[in-house]
Design goal:
The longest helix is centred in the N-terminal third of the chain and has 17 residues, at 95-111. It is built from 13 helices and 16 strands. The chain has helices at residues 12-23, 47-50, 53-58, 95-111, 156-162, 167-171, 192-207, 218-232, 235-239, 242-245, 290-298, 306-315, 327-338; strands spanning 2-10, 29-35, 38-41, 62-65, 73-75, 79-87, 117-120, 124-127, 130-140, 143-151, 211-213, 252-258, 261-270, 273-281, 285-286, 320-321. By secondary structure, it is α+β, with helices and mostly antiparallel strands. The N and C termini lie far apart (56 Å). The strands form 4 sheets. Strands 7-8-9-10-6-2-1-11 form an 8-stranded mixed sheet. A 3-stranded mixed sheet has the order 4-3-5, with helices on both faces. 36% of the residues lie in helices and 28% in strands. The chain folds into 2 domains: 2-237, Bira Bifunctional Protein, Domain 2 (BirA Bifunctional Protein, domain 2, 2-Layer Sandwich); 242-338, Enolase-like, domain 1, CATH 3.30.390.50.
Length: 341
């Protein structure tokens, strides 16, 4: 049995805290969610580089940090969010296979609404080549968290104004918004609950499971409130690593592009040793916390041993990156360690 929960429109940080609370419960869940206007960065991104913070503050757009990787996104009341929390043992073939299976199910659910929606690897669902939905997720211990959005009637102007979109997104293939579409633009005018029902039906069939309508338990709401107040809702968590907040405090930097996304490492060194290091980017790594563990292992190490230490740690970490090998991280760390101060 998978619980089907639809929660009301919430601020971004409250929604993210609820995700984390449900992830560490016992049940399998499919949650439909709505957001007030918010700019959400991935777990490992530098907030100020991805989001126009002064503009968001002026226009009442909340900024928040996801527990998942990936790139910065905008959520607003015209976007339907959804998330699946499932047992890991449903997907013995791993995260990439899980993602492909779930994306095909979501695409099928959208096709059932009258759209020629198809899955485009690595994590998009498109209509005639234009992105309608994005997804991402990770394994956490014995659980899978897989999330996505459906562009129902979004504020495209908000996306381009609140985010500091890289030049490659603004220029590649024409206007950024022109490479997106929405249910409204495709002529589909359904209520959010009707869209959610279509997705739920398709997922139930794909998973061979029954989805039972449910509501939040008191303990889940209390756990979400506690997580929000202690971590996810705090400015320290949202702004992230101090080296990403204040890059001038770092003296070495490396950045690499890959099919999995951008990876970067910034570090501060003294007397040949790493004093502090931040590893980030817009890739999806599972489990996300492995980057913080790697930073801790590297702090205090000699620059000339950083690559070997990183490779040794990653080889036994059990981590994986969607669309790339762990060499992506070891290579960017090695490059940063060898960079000129």
């Amino acid at each position: 049995m998978i619980r089907l929960i639809a929660t009301p429109e919430l601020p971004a940080r409250r929604n993210l805290a609820l995700t984390e609370a449900l992830l560490h419960g016992d049940d399998e869940i499919f949650r439909l969610q709505r957001f007030r206007p918010g700019a959400l960065v991935g777990a490992h991104q530098a907030l100020g580089r991805e989001v126009d913070l002064p503009w968001c503050a002026e226009h009442g757009v909340e900024v928040a940090r996801r527990m998942t990787g990936g790139g910065a996104i905008i959520m607003d009341p015209g976007i339907l969010g959804w998330e699946l929390i499932l047992r890991r043992d449903r997907f013995p073939a791993g995260l990439a296979a899980a993602g492909a299976s779930l994306c095909r199910a979501i695409a099928g659910g959208l096709a059932g609404l009258g759209l020629p929606a198809t899955f485009r690897p690595r994590n998009d669902i498109v209509v005639d080549g234009r992105k309608l939905a994005g997804t991402g997720g990770y394994f956490d211990r014995d659980r899978l968290l897989f999330q996505g959005t459906v562009l129902v009637d979004p504020d495209f102007a908000l996306m381009t104004r609140a985010l500091r979109l890289p030049e490659r997104k603004l220029s590649a293939g024409g206007d950024f918004a022109a490479r997106l579409t929405s249910l409204r633009a495709e002529g589909v005018r359904l209520r959010f609950d009707e869209i959610g029902a279509g997705l739920a039906t398709a997922l139930a069939a794909a998973l061979g499971a029954k989805l039972i309508p449910s509501t939040l338990h008191d303990g889940e709401a209390a756990r979400a409130a506690a997580l929000h107040d202690a971590e996810i809702g705090t400015e320290a968590f949202v702004h992230g690593h101090h080296l990403h907040q204040h890059p001038a405090a770092a003296d070495r930097h490396a950045r690499r592009a890959s099919p999995a996304g951008i990876a970067e490492a910034v570090l501060r060194a003294q007397a040949g040793r790493i004093q502090a290091i931040a590893i980030g980017g817009d890739f999806f790594i599972t489990p996300p916390r492995v980057l913080r563990d790697l930073e801790a292992v590297l702090t205090g190490r000699r620059l000339d041993e950083a690559e070997a230490v990183a490779r040794g740690f990653l080889a036994t970490s059990g981590a994986s990156i969607a669309g790339a090998g762990l060499d992506l991280l070891a290579d960017v760390i090695a490059e940063a360690a060898c960079a000129s101060a």
